[in-house]
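User: Modeling request: complex.
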Amino acid sequence: MSKIETFHYDDKIVRNFAVVTVIWGIVGMTVGLLAAIQLVWPAANLGLAETTFGRIRPLHTNAAIFAFVGNGIFTGVYYSLQRLLKTRMFSDVLSKVHFWGWQAIILAAALTLPLGITSSHEYAELEWPIDIAIALVWIVFGINMFGTILKRREQHLYVAIWFYIATWVTVTVLHVFNNLEIPVSMWKSIPVFAGVQDALVQWWYGHNAVAFFLTTPYLGLMYYFLPKAAKRPVYSYKLSIVHFWGLIFIYIWAGPHHLLYTSLPDWAQSLGTVFSLMLIAPSWGGMLNGLLTLRGAWDRVRNDPILKFMVVAVSAYGMATLEGPLLSIKSINAISHYTDWTVGHVHVGTLGWNGMLTFGMLYWLFPKLYNTKLHSVKQANVHFWIATLGIMFYCIPLYWAGWTQSMMWKQFEPDGFLSYGNFLETVTQIIPMYAMRALGGALYVGGAIMMAVNLYKTAKSGSVEDKSTQAPAREKYVAHKGEYWHRWIERRPVQMLIGSTVVILIGGLVEIFPMMLIDNNVPKIESVQPYTPLELEGRDIYIREGCISCHSQMVRPFRSETERYGEYSKSGEFVYDRPFLWGSKRTGPDLHRLGKKYPDSWHYNHMLDPESMSPGSIMPPYPWLIEDDLSTKYTAAKIKVLKTLNTPYPEGYEDDAVDDLQKQAAEVAASLRADGINQENLENKEIVALIAYLQRLGTDIKPELMVEQ
Amino acid sequence: MYKYILSEAGNINWMALFALITFMTVFILSAILVFRKNNDFITKMSHLPLEEDEAGSTK
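Assistant: Request completed. Predicted assembly structure:
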């Protein structure tokens, strides 16, 4: 028998992460609520650029994913890792650097996103200096985690730790590849990949941000905290092993299901569909494993709010992971994509799975961390019901809205015309559903605030004690004949890390390498030319204002879309799009064939007051584009970076770019003046650049324009 | 050889087969091995999260 050693767990770091999880959770959800309200009352943007939908939507998603769920992950990992390995964290200093570094990154996001500093890659919007900070803090977390694993007293690694390891390695790979960009200035960068390739890498990242940030670490937490709360071991440990390897192998392939019917090559779309369907197996294996852990304890679910939260969380995981693969079937995706159905689906996952598991974990943890009892079990029960109702009020109207809108988009009259040719009709129809969704969101935030009060009172009634713990030192392990095969890897964290990396890289490499290396995958179109400097600046304004949150730039090859928008989008049209701006949601219409559809003055008036051109529109006004001067400070630098990325601008063009920009701006201003818009210094305003960009959209291959030429 | 594989990437067949075979191999192998082996160890592993509660901690 080994010598018994006495040591202390570092619970202070757990408490810190737990407290900020609650705070950022409320902040992130409140921003989401504000965004939801703006879809009913656009005036709720308070008339400020910084609080307008396009800018706060990424703030909401980043806060919910990286601040709320992120800190939730770290809370659970720092608590469970120490106990499963029977040791204190590797380094208190690294723990602190991790904690404060992560909070600083969140603060930087909260400041830069409302200012319109964004790369526009969904869930990876933060600009390059913050990307570097994320990479550094993530490495600190990794060193701390692996250091702890190496100095462990427990020989074998429990399955939750494998999920933590897979999370760490995959997020590292995803973060690096999706943020390969060349800085133009301190707060602006241009991605290395363009068009279709950028889209594939982004959704390989975007999907796996869901997989490896919102799912695998939370499965680790489920495998630890659910048995703790149920006071019984997981239903089948063997199933958990198959769950782990099956899940991490398959998940990484499924990204292209976000790009079905787009200009992505068909083979990549098919791969995404096949692997998404296969995902049902491991996901449901894990879900059933979680629910069956409660076998014989269901009577306690009636009284114990913690178990209630966990049951709903695991059920929501099951629902979301059945729905996700179904949405990846092309015929279903043709209906669901770009609608609120996707938003509803995502929120079953985030509100149901992540939110409810986090709440359950926090209610379980706080009394332990503060050596006391939960202040009010009754209030926790009330919170459970409010949150559950909130999820229902949130998701059901959005499913309804998504289905309704999609059917309206596709409806034809017997004489062959679209029944709802005006896109706006399909929006005003679903505003009551948006109002109900906002109510659901308000209930959910209300519940979270109630939890914050309950946990605060719990903490206040308790005390912080530095308990010591004892465990035998780790003995040198001697393998014996015929031992269970998987034990080999369970006591070798480094091999586990390598194994996980290999498994997740297979899918990534098979999908992405051919896309990068084979020209045939992106057929060139001769008439497609790089953007002019003014269009480029206009495009950056489009990115800054987050227009992508509501408008796609991808006409799918359906009659209902070509009839409404024009020629379907071709991959060769996007070769100079850095970043790609295909979007994933149509709260407003697709814009890919917008160019030359309306006169310049229409755009001017529409941006100043959307309702003047489209009565009943829920698009917010953008008066600041008309008031603010266009900055050309970085125009030359942008051209220079684009040239290094092989955009065919003429030699030395960066020196002429601003002159060209001013010439084109004068032309746009003249056309506006001809239509009776007499504003001083019109040619220097941002609106001119945006109009130039919008008028260029999709015109390179517009047949009628090419005939005119 | 690598060049040849890449030039064929427009054709989904080899990818679908490769992916399916790799997955089925990993999945079936791990399933067979996992379900064949040692129940005592599995029980010990599944009780790891509960050890703290079972043993209790000292001040």
